[in-house]
């Protein structure tokens, strides 16, 4: 097993954004280490992050929350000439990536060999990639964990410096609960990471077992969150929950009308004694001021009105209408799973 030692006088660049970056920055300063610089994506993407994730400090820490004295650089690409000049001018010896949208390419990996570190919200080598919380809910895996590891040319394959234990959470959890719990784990790992630096201790590098590795592709809720009401009721509920807060919600149409999109954030399922006819799937058979009931193949979904997002929902009669997804919507949802997006 190889080891890695990081000197106390090292100069760090924090690359990315979010909760873990804020915790790293704060922990470095609290322990009298050199103040790290911050290299992040353009401001328009930060505005989108705030819009999607809100200002819940347990969930997300905006770039605006850093002190005015912090050295923050907004760049298009960590690999470009401007970024290289920033790293050189600030005499950066190590890079720590947190939720970075940038892919580190060959030249920078070679220049900072074994000195680019990442914090990842899963227990590697399982669940490399992104979208882990969404997939966990779909697969009824209610746990959290995190790993600090070296970055290599293969996504999330680098040797492990530190790793948390598996933390079990409630089976009622939504993605927001996974994010908050993972942030708590990030905080503990970051404190341990900094403690080992200031104590002049080495990190034992653990090689990942590629034979048991899994990869989870990004899940883009707005493009991939179309509900297929021909799934079993239990799987529809899991899918709805997996797209829920802080994400934009699983969605469908009313009576196949393209301007009638509905976002659904939670539901419960009640199994029927016999299967429903496929023609009735998606039909809304009950509505009051608090609740609707929707037919699915093997029972009924119950959805609280507060868990629906539709304009003037309390004034809209859904009774007798059908939650529906046009074939093209489902097809496009499938195609989006194979698309490559530069930004999340």
What is the fold's blueprint, element by element?
Blueprint: E1 3-5, E2 12-16, H1 19-30, E3 37-40, H2 43-53, E4 72-74, H3 81-89, E5 94-98, H4 106-111, E6 116-120, E7 128-129, H5 132-138, E8 143-144, E9 147-150, E10 160-163, E11 167-168, H6 175-198, E12 202-204, E13 215-216, H7 221-224, H8 233-242, E14 250-254, E15 257-264, E16 268-271, E17 284-287, E18 291-296, E19 299-304, E20 308-309, E21 323-324, H9 327-336
Parallel strand pairs: 2-3, 2-5, 3-4, 5-6, 7-13
Antiparallel strand pairs: 1-12, 6-9, 8-11, 9-10, 14-15, 14-21, 15-20, 16-19, 17-18, 18-19
Helix pairs in contact: 1-6, 5-8
Protein model, in words:
With 344 residues, this protein is of the alpha/beta class. It has 9 helices and 21 strands. The protein has a 7-stranded mixed beta sheet, sandwiched between helices. A hairpin with a 3-residue loop joins strand 17 and strand 18. The longest helix has 24 residues. The C terminus is likely disordered.
Contiguous runs where pLDDT drops below 50 for at least 5 residues? 334-344
Query: Given the structure, what is the number of helices?
Result: 9
Instruction: Please give the share of residues in helix.
Output: 25-40%
Order of helices and strands: EEHEHEHEHEEHEEEEHEEHHEEEEEEEEH
Quick overview:
The protein has 344 residues and is an alpha/beta fold.
């Amino acid at each position: 097993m190889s080891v890695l030692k990081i000197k106390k006088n090292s100069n760090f660049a924090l690359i990315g954004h979010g909760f873990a970056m804020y915790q790293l920055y704060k922990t470095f300063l609290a322990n009298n280490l050199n103040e790290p610089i911050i290299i992040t994506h353009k401001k328009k993407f930060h505005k989108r992050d705030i819009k999607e994730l809100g200002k819940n400090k347990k969930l997300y820490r905006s770039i605006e929350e850093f002190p005015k004295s912090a050295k923050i650089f907004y760049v298009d690409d960590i690999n470009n000439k401007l970024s290289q000049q920033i790293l050189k001018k600030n005499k950066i010896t190590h890079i720590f990536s947190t939720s970075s949208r940038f892919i580190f390419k060959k030249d920078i990996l070679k220049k900072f060999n074994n000195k680019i570190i990442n914090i990842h919200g899963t227990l590697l080598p399982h669940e490399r990639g992104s979208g882990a919380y969404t997939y966990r809910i779909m697969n009824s895996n209610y746990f959290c964990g995190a790993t600090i590891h070296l970055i290599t040319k293969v996504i999330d394959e680098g040797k492990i410096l530190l790793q948390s234990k598996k933390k079990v959470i409630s089976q009622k959890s939504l993605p927001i609960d996974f994010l908050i719990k993972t942030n708590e784990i990030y905080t503990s790992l970051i404190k341990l990471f900094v403690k080992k630096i200031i104590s002049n201790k080495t990190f034992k590098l653990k090689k990942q077992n590629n034979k048991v590795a899994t990869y989870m592709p990004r899940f883009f809720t707005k493009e991939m969150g179309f509900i297929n009401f021909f799934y079993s009721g239990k799987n529809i509920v899991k899918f709805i929950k997996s797209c829920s807060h802080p994400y934009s919600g699983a969605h469908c149409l009313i009576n196949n009308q393209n301007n009638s999109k509905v976002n659904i954030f939670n539901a419960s399922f009640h199994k029927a004694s016999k299967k429903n006819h496929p023609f009735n799937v998606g039909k809304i058979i009950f509505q009051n001021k608090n609740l609707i009931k929707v037919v699915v193949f093997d029972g009924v979904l119950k959805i609280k009105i507060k868990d629906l997002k539709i304009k003037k929902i309390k004034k809209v009669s859904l009774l007798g209408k059908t939650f529906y997804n046009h074939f093209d919507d489902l097809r496009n949802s499938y195609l989006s799973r194979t698309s490559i997006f530069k930004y999340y």
